[in-house]
Amino acid sequence: MIHATDRMGGAVIGTSILAAFILLPFTQDPSYLFSAIPLAVLLGALGMVLRRMRIHDGVIFAAHLVLLVVFLFAIGLPLAAPGQNLFGLFAEGVRHMSTHTTPMIANPGLTVLLVATVGLTTVLTDLLAVGVNRPAWGILPALTVYLIGAVGLLRDLPWWTIVLLALGYLWILLADGINAAEVWPRNLDRTVRLTGRITPLALRMGGIVAAAAAALTLLVGLLVPLPPTQHWNAGRLNQGSGPIQLADPMLDMRRNLSLPADSPVLTYTTDAGQGEYLRMASLPVLDRNGWQNASFPLTQGSNLPPAPGQTAPGREIHTQVKVGDFRSEYLPLPYAPRRFDASGSWAYGSDSLVVVSTGQDRTAATRNLSYDVTSTDPTPDGATLSTAQAGRPSDANLTASVPQDMPQEIIDLALKITQSEPTPALKAAAIQRYLRGSQFTYSLEPQPGSGYDAMKRFLLVDHKGYCEQFAGSMAAMARVVGIPSRVAVGWLPGEQKGDGYEVTLHDMHAWPELYFEGVGWVRFEPTPGVAVPPAWTLTAPEEPSASATPTPSAEASSTPSAVPSTAPSETTAPQESGQGVNVGAILARVALALGLLVLVTGLLAVPGLLRHRLRTRRLQPAPTDDLEASRRGVDAAWSEVRDSFLDYGHPWPSGSPRSIGRLAGVGLPEEAGQALVTLSREVERSRYARSALHSGDLAAMVQTIRDGLRVDTGWDVRLIGEWWPRSWWNALAVALSWPVLRGRALTWWKSRRAS
Amino acid sequence: MSASRSYQSIGQAGAPGRPGNTPANQPSAPANQPSAPAYQPSAPANQPTAPMVQPSAPSYQASAAGRVAAGSPAAARTTRATSGHTLADVTRVMGQVRDAVETVIEGKRGAIDTALVVMLAEGHLLLEDVPGVGKTMLAKALGRAIDCRVNRVQFTPDLLPTDITGVSIYNQATRDFEFKQGGIFANIVLGDEINRASPKTQSAMLEAMEERQVSADGSTYQLPAPFMVIATQNPIEMEGTYPLPEAQRDRFMARIEMGYPSQEAEVAMLRNHGGRHPLADMSAVTDGATINGLIQAVTGVYVAPALEQYIVQVVGATRTTRDLRLGGSPRSSLQLLRACRSLAAISGRDYVTPDDVAALAVPVLAHRVLASTEAQLAKRSVDDIIGSCLRSVPIPDRS
Description:
The complex is a heterodimer of chains A (755) and B (399). Chain A contains 26 helices and 18 strands. Chain A has 755 residues and is of the alpha+beta class. Chain A folds into 3 domains: 4-223, no CATH class; 249-583, no CATH class; 619-724, no CATH class. In chain A, the strands form 5 sheets. A 6-stranded antiparallel beta sheet of chain A has the order 8-11-6-1-16-15. The longest helix of chain A is centred in the last third of the chain and has 52 residues, at 567-618. The radius of gyration of chain A is 36 Å and the shape is elongated. Chain B contains 20 helices and 11 strands. Chain B has helices at residues 2-6, 21-25, 28-32, 43-49, 57-66, 73-81, 87-102, 109-120, 135-145, 161-165, 199-211, 246-249, 263-273, 278-281, 288-298, 305-320, 330-346, 354-365, 373-377, 382-392, and strands at residues 125-128, 150-154, 166-171, 176-181, 188-192, 213-216, 219-222, 228-233, 254-256, 324-326, 370-371. In chain B, helix 7 packs across helix 8 (109-120), helix 8 (109-120) packs across helix 17 and helix 16 crosses helix 17 (330-346). The chains are: A alpha+beta (755), B alpha/beta (399). Chain A binds chain B through residues 631, 635, 654-659, 684-685, 687-690, 692, and chain B through 302, 304, 306-307, 349-355, 358, 395-399. Chain B: This is MoxR-like ATPase. Chain B: It comes from Raineyella antarctica. Chain B: Residues 317-385 form the ChlI/MoxR AAA lid domain. Chain B: Belongs to the MoxR family.
């Protein structure tokens, strides 16, 4: 027979799974469902099993939370970056949500966040619908999820999400209706006697369904007319220049770099003679939180103005780019782009020469896009550069300002590094040389961020970072010494494949761009091990030595040759170092997962072990010559029998020992029933007779009874009886119940006051 | 004479033509003989002055001589003191008595057991049932089985107190007043339809029951031991009756309802009783002296302190429950305890268990309490209410 709690538990699982689908429009990556649905089923099943064991609802709620956390750990660990914990993953998910528009691109943090949402929905729905027996309120958690989507994010959810929500509610109400209907026949007789009326069951059932339908109609009527929120900035964007909210490319970069699996992003062919840096975004603003996008006017079109500040005409380069399954609102272009023919609606910023999509499906605009770009080669002459003055670009208010609150240590460091260099370009080269020095290590360990704190830690403390810290620090120090700077985000040239180049996710990169009078924005490369510095940045005296022996670093040793300036060898370095990190990290994760498994198994075995210990203690042979000890022994044996009955799901009648011995032994095999009667007589004598020492082997009797209890029971009942004994849970619930706790606290308080 | 019509004596212990009884009882007779001068009934002397009490002479003689320790308390005490009975004897003898009585009354084991319990606990029994279910037969069979004198007193509205207790009559021959014993002078007194007598007569009877002695004209006459009154009340035909007030009912240790026998028992009864009266075939299995010894032995049954508490709590629960207007008296606690001792001994135990209390709570308490108006309106029986009082008290764990 289906228990009432089972039926409602099933409805809770169903509603939670439907709620999991309501979250589908939030993300482009539906893989979270593979974790969320099993989690909902697990939580629901746990609730059903525990309720069948008649365990207190508070304990069930706690068990749910424990399972939720363990589950999130289990799915979160493989997704987390090395050194990142679950909270880091959550934080990443929240950041991802705040920086991306729906549907958001895949992100491990987001996945964990969505799974956690579904899990929490299940736990709370279960608590409301079964725990506190308020099925009508059981829809609230799922409704909250829906409302966050519908109102909180100001996005229109597809029409079918409300249908899912309504189905979930209907499910819960139906389960409640059927449960109520099951109770009626029992009460019917009494009702008829009291009122003299019979309301047919069908009529009542119909009433329940009608009520549910009315509630559903009301709900739909309330929620459907919510105004569909269009992309509210799309209209203005299409008209021309205007503000646009752009995602933080730094975060995408950090995530892409730390993905365990590398995958191709795009391929390109070029007539430049070597690989090209493909630039997507440019971050001109520096403040205490690091390098950030600024609002800049957008101009619709595909013909870009000449690169700012560049006076030399430069060679025209033609590049054909073919983007794979990569979604972004930024168009990857070699610097400095002049023309491109990508389909869709695109706009550019005339200072940054960044091209962003303004089309309908903006955030996925680059997906499967193929386009030709014509760009001018910015390669400056090393000699010209070394004498160039720091310029003043048109957006100098952004790119040339040193923040007031810039930490003095960084300023001091920048000045110290550059004090012996005469010209701005040499100063910049000195900074680059400093950062490529042996004390700095390329590592993906640090948290993303280019704020003052991250910068100080990187420059002054641990000297560990990846391109974001290297690029950000160099750009910041360049400003200190008077050179306008900004941080560009994009792609390394990638690996040569046949005629063209292939760029993968791990090639995502950030680099500083510095502005020089007459030259314009010049790319520097302070990140060691990833790429060799551009030839023009190794000015004058240092050129040969710097190029020949870039200071040996941890990465350099694993790089076959950092000297050659060919593209292939440039890109092998990060991959190899990444693999080194990965093996250790994988081992650590496996060890952690194993440890967690052992811990969970151990925790699960605790009730059974404690129960076993209690049984051993109770069944110690009681002396037959000491009256008190004999009585204690008999009592302990009797308690053990009572607990065994509970453990194996047999009813334990109330009453005197004799009546219990008679009633409880009914379903047992004869031998066990006989032992029970004998033991009950021992108990009776021990309790009520004048001076009764027990006779016979109590432990053997108890064992016979326990054997009898196990006959004709399923393996699941035996397993639960052995390892999750109900008597233990009951004892726990009693020990944690309010009156007992209060009593203990009062006793403790009194004894303390007395002393 | 109205009295003779309404008042029958049935002193039948020891049927005529069964001489085996007399020799067996004889040895104890000399012991009592010297100490019973005050009350030496003789059949001839008794005969004319006892229009109401008409025992069959031979058997009365035997029992009077053998077991009626009349007149002197010392005599009764001697009988008890000399008993060396153990609890094992209680179980054995009571088993025999029960078997013997069961040959006469089929399928009424519960009622028989309660009667035995009450007898061993020195209480009195109130039988409430319709006529013809074997109330009188139970009393008679019990008397026959323990070889004791049984008197039956039919209560009528014109029955006088002296008819119960006895009266002093002037003897012309001796020129002295002579006490003529009333119907109560017997080991087992069957007071039939006790609610038909006037309250005055009822209280005379109940006083004698409680005191176990009769005072008349300045003399005190001890009633024989064992002494047990089995009174019956007819729950129908209430017209013109004086139902026992609560205070009087409290003096009965237990009340039982015989109830109709089961179909099989009734068929068996037809078969067995068809030919001749089964009572005629019944032989005594023990005697009054043994019963006195057994009564003495029962007092040795152990009652754990926790069970004393339990009994008090159960009776206390009847006082506090809202379903009862009147709960059990302290006397009822005492009687419940004694009944429990007796039941434990009959069951072969030397200690009382909660099961004993549970088994006896309804018979011992039900006739002493009064249901509240609400409970009556809800059609809750007193048995039900006492059962729930019993369940409301947790079974004690340890002594």
